[in-house]
Every structure is written in structure tokens, then in C-alpha cells.
TrEMBL record:
Coiled-coil annotated spans: none
Signal peptide: none
Residue span, Reverse transcriptase RNase H-like domain: 25-122
Single GO MF descriptor: endonuclease activity
Stored CDD domains: RNase_HI_RT_Ty3
Full protein name: Uncharacterized protein
Length: 330
């Protein structure tokens, strides 16, 4: 650990951290949005961001109508920030205008009534906010899978049309060079052609022994609708890094990470490798809290009849690895 020296110059910066904390006595502004790919919320106070929150909809939530899905985002925010919003005035902003009257609607279904029971303890005021202005919550609710987007070039003849639209031409211009790097999909396809295991699967497909595997018109191997990743550990690590440490994912757990990756990729022992990768993540081990239920109360041991009759030893296990890969014991 690096040693730091406290000087007078550091005092204003240290006090500025306290000024960033929310004022419990002042109202909060929460902007919510929902889509088929996620729920997004941002909590603000006097124009300053307090916290962000987002999550994917569950399998049954994807089938909700638009009204219920937007209401789910409104309910999700108070549950997420209960320690901030309970007992304070909260202004909820949504781009679904009918939610302004959710507290006065005479006819509600059972799901909506159940959700209103959850938030009735909060002092909430729902306001309409146009979707074009609700950019932050909209971005949080629409998760983008980066580095796996197909771009198909199209040829358009523009030179012949410049004279028709009477576009003014500049005498001087700057020339830029755009270099395109191969995406993960291109790297997987290239690795499939060099892997011996993939060639063995192709032979079994021809013999109709592998019903779950298929080849497309470009000769790419698929497992049902998922791209098969060959046994290239460097390539697999790149996929795991993209799904775990990028700015779009923010260190998900092993189960969520597996659910995200299995929609697009497949390889043998995939879930086991993901669990091992997450367990070895230094940031997750140091920062994330344990979500398991606490252990039971300690039970007293019987008092021995004489000294040294019973010898007990306690071990502290489950500590995160050091940066050198060592496991500390306590």
C-alpha cells in the first residue's frame, strides 16, 4: 500500500466528498425508463446525480404490456433506493404519460394493485417526461452488446448525385484514415478453421451424428443458434473480459454473465469457466458483498475436564487472492 501525506491542500478535496452526499431532508428526482431489454433509473438531487440503477427484465417480465413494463421501472426505483427515498418526497419522471394517473385509476389489475401496495409507504409524485429528454434512463434501459454488432457495407453512388443537389464543394479538405479491426465474431470464425476439434464436429455433421450442430452458408459452425467458440484460451478470455470488465457490463455475477453469454456463444464447460473467471476477479472479490444469508449463532462447546483435553483451531478461509496469486490465511 502506498503511503500518502496529509497536507492542507488536501482538506478542500476531502470536504468536497461530504458535499456530494445526498441531503436527506430535500426531495429526490428519479428518472425511469423501461424497454424489452432492460430497466433503467437515475436518482438526482438539485441536478446532481446520486446513483444509477439498471437490470435486465426476467423471462416473464418480457411479456408484460408497455404500461406494466413502464410501471415496473417506477416500482423498481423505490425498492432499489429505499434508504434514500423512504420518508422523503420523491418526484418520479417517466415517458409513459398514463402513469401520471396510476394512483387515481379506478380499475387496476392484480399485478398493478400489488405493485402499488409496495410503494404506498413512499411519498411519490409521478410526472410525465418526454422520451426524447429522458436520455439517461433511456440509455440505461437499453443495454448494448459491444464488439459483436454486424455491419454490412452497402455501395452507394454519391458522386453522380452531388451535381443534382447543388452541394457546395470545398477547395481544401482533410483526409482521415479509418482502420477497421476484426470483431470477436471474425476472430471466432478464423479460429474455427484452424481448430482440429471443429473439423471433427464438421465430419460428424456430415454423417448426421450431431443434430444440435449446423453449418451456415459461409461454413461457420453453430450450436443451435449460438456461435461455437473453439478451444482457444486467449480468445475465450477476450470474450469473458468483454462480458465482465467492459463499461457496458460492470462486473456481473457468474449466473448473470452466463445468461448473457449463452445467448450468443457456446463451448464445452462454459458455465464452469465463467464461474472460475468471476471467482478469480480481483475487483469482485474485494468490492462485492456476500449476498448469502448469514450463518447461525455460534454454539458453545462443552467445558473440558482438564487442561489440554480439547484443542481447537479456527481457520479464516474464502479470502481474496493477493495480486501475486497467493491465498492468505488467518
Amino acid at each position: 500500500m502506498r503511503r500518502s501525506i496529509w497536507n492542507i491542500e488536501e482538506a478542500p478535496d476531502f470536504k468536497a466528498l461530504f458535499r456530494l452526499n445526498p441531503y436527506i431532508t430535500k426531495p429526490f428526482d428519479v428518472y425511469c425508463d423501461a424497454s424489452g431489454s432492460g430497466l433503467g433509473c437515475v436518482s438526482m438531487q438539485e441536478g446532481r446525480v446520486i446513483a444509477y440503477a439498471s437490470r435486465q427484465p426476467r423471462k416473464h417480465e418480457v411479456n408484460y404490456p408497455t404500461h406494466d413494463l413502464e410501471l415496473l421501472a417506477v416500482v423498481y426505483a423505490p425498492k432499489k433506493w429505499r434508504h434514500y427515498l423512504l420518508g422523503n418526497t420523491c418526484h418520479i419522471y417517466t415517458d409513459h404519460k398514463s402513469l401520471k394517473y396510476i394512483f387515481t385509476q379506478p380499475e387496476l389489475n392484480m399485478r398493478q394493485r400489488r405493485w402499488l401496495e409496495l410503494i404506498k409507504d413512499y411519498d411519490l409524485e409521478v410526472h410525465y417526461h418526454p422520451g426524447k429528454a429522458n436520455v439517461v434512463a433511456d440509455a440505461l434501459s437499453r443495454k448494448a452488446h459491444c464488439n459483436f454488432i454486424e455491419a454490412r457495407p452497402t455501395v452507394r453512388v454519391l458522386c453522380c448525385e452531388i451535381g443534382d443537389i447543388e452541394m457546395p464543394t470545398a477547395l481544401e479538405a482533410e483526409l482521415y484514415n479509418l482502420v477497421l479491426e476484426p470483431t470477436i465474431k471474425d476472430q471466432i470464425i478464423a479460429a474455427q478453421k484452424q481448430d482440429k476439434g471443429m473439423a471433427h464436429i464438421r465430419d460428424e455433421i456430415d454423417d448426421k451424428k450431431k443434430a444440435c450442430f449446423k453449418l451456415d452458408e459461409e461454413g461457420v459452425l453453430w450450436f443451435k443458434n449460438r456461435l461455437v467458440v473453439p478451444k482457444d484460451m486467449e480468445l475465450r478470455k477476450k470474450i469473458l473480459d468483454e462480458a465482465h470488465t467492459s463499461m457496458f457490463t460492470l462486473h456481473p455475477g457468474s449466473n448473470k454473465m452466463y445468461q448473457d453469454l449463452k445467448q450468443k456463444f457456446w463451448w464445452t464447460r462454459m458455465k464452469r469457466e465463467i464461474a472460475k473467471y468471476v471467482s478469480e476477479c480481483d475487483v469482485c472479490q474485494r468490492v462485492k458483498a456476500d449476498h448469502l444469508k448469514p450463518a447461525g449463532m455460534l454454539q458453545p462447546l462443552a467445558v473440558p475436564a482438564r487442561k489440554w483435553e480439547d484443542i481447537h483451531m479456527d481457520f479464516i478461509v474464502g479470502l481474496p487472492r493477493t495480486r501475486r496469486g497467493m491465498i492468505p490465511f488467518g
